[in-house]
């Protein structure tokens, strides 16, 4: 039995918790042949047709819908029911365009605000980056889930709103999102889940180049993987964060499930193509089932699939839609964006300490303790620039903390770190997405 339709169970929309995968969305559809309950959601729309905006009040009962709940729709004439759908559709399109018109006005207000603050270079620009407001999207998702009294599943309402806001973004500004291509990679899936279908997606061949595309203004946003629940940090992303001026605007989790795909049978496979991250995540499987096959790193799992499809005795580890382990992605953009805390934010920063001073790292970490800040993640990468210049072994420390960069205690901590470290860089503050809970 599909329990997704249970309206009262807790549900957290994308941008709030785990993004539903394509398979989750498919599963949200009611089982074939199941009788449809009366449509209170539609009744709400019909009743509120002439009102400018929905409120949190539950929709007023619709006489027609109530009638159909006592007399089963099965006895109604199909043509009549379709006429009703046509009428609701007309109202929906009208309301959607009302919403879109307001969104265009929101876009103009943002444009004026960025012009008056002198931060409006040519598009796609730091100002166009502000078109996407993850904090506000979270509010909208939470609101529509609260308003939803079924029979639509919360996941269905959220998916519809993802697309409504995607269209809304693209009406305000032409937005290009760079991701690790080609199409079909996990990053592409994560980008679609984050931004919806109406924005322009730009496939890029390496993670480092995704940063470059956004830095150079060829894309408004980039989406890069930060860490995987099995394989840990994504080194290419952390290394690029050391040098970039871009800021993190949002985070996003994508359940990952890898497939081994080949034209040959398992025991004849001699070469396996994949992205290094996918190899890392599937190490145990390969060691057990294909210990002698050569593992060949390529730029993306989608490219691996293309190569393996053409070659005998070759296989690829690539993307599939089902849920498995989880990769966390972050959205990067020029400028700091939304400076309003959502009330539940995280901040990523990096710093370098003088490793020759005893207790230097300890002193740096104590700053957070003294400011009452909880750390949720710590990682390090070799500081290649400093090591080349000043000798080995300097490390860049990446610390993620609970709080927003404008919070007084975070400001104090950054000041404290700046006084004691060689370098400090705040990489961005973004609304926190609760870690998805395992489904099995
Ligand atoms: O509220 C805003 O700032 C908007 O631009 C409107 C809107 C929306 O359609 O609701 C669109 C895009 C943003 O990412 C968030 C919300």
> Please, what is the CATH homologous superfamily of the domain at 339-440?
ACT domain
Tell me the distance between the termini. Answer: 16 Å
pLDDT below 50 for ≥5 consecutive residues: which ranges? Answer: 1-10, 16-69, 120-129
Mean pLDDT: 82
Q: Note the main sheet.
A: 8 strands, mixed
Radius of gyration of CA atoms, rounded to a whole number: 25 Å
**Fraction in beta strands:** 15-25%
Structural class: alpha/beta
Number of helices: 16
The tally of strands reads: 12
CATH topology of the domain at 339-440: Alpha-Beta Plaits
Based on the structure given, which CATH architecture of the domain at 339-440 is correct? 2-Layer Sandwich
CATH class of the domain at 339-440: Alpha Beta
The coarse overall form would be: globular
Ligand species: prephenic acid
GO cellular component, one term: cytoplasm
Keywords: Amino-acid biosynthesis, Aromatic amino acid biosynthesis, Cytoplasm, Isomerase, Lyase, Multifunctional enzyme, Phenylalanine biosynthesis
Domain ACT: 349-431
Function: Catalyzes the Claisen rearrangement of chorismate to prephenate and the decarboxylation/dehydration of prephenate to phenylpyruvate.
